[in-house]
Amino acid sequence: MVSDSLVHKSVVIDSSRSAVERLCSRLLEAAAAKDFDGDDIFAIHLALEEALLNAIQHGNKQNTAKQIRVEYFITPAKFEISITDEGPGFNPDSVPDPRAEENLRKCCGRGLLLMRSYMDEVEYNEAGNCVHMVKHKTKAPNAN
Prior knowledge:
Elements: E1 7-14, H1 17-33, H2 38-59, E2 67-74, E3 78-84, H3 110-118, E4 121-124, E5 130-136
Antiparallel strand pairs: 1-2, 2-3, 3-5, 4-5
Helix pairs in contact: 1-2, 2-3
């Protein structure tokens, strides 16, 4: 039996901005329903959008025939999501730090930096085509 305090779903979306926007809206509404505060919702939104757009642009190379698999768990204490594209993957450690002097004017790596900054955990599978992120609720669930 699945508890009402857990939302767990697997979905497949098209590699399109409109599909990303619809999914983001649904996930943010679900997080808000679990009483995540505004700061947490902002962090989740930013990281979620970056990860999904990276899957479209870098993973699936904007090929609308390819899809993105998303599995998520939302509880009163945490928001957890895995996003998998159909691309060959990459090595996240090879992406240059956008804060380094030589990279300040380059546009690559900023999304990864934001994801790592706003989520509590960010991990990639060995292939590099799946990112797993976790955001723990900043404020403890109400004990009443």
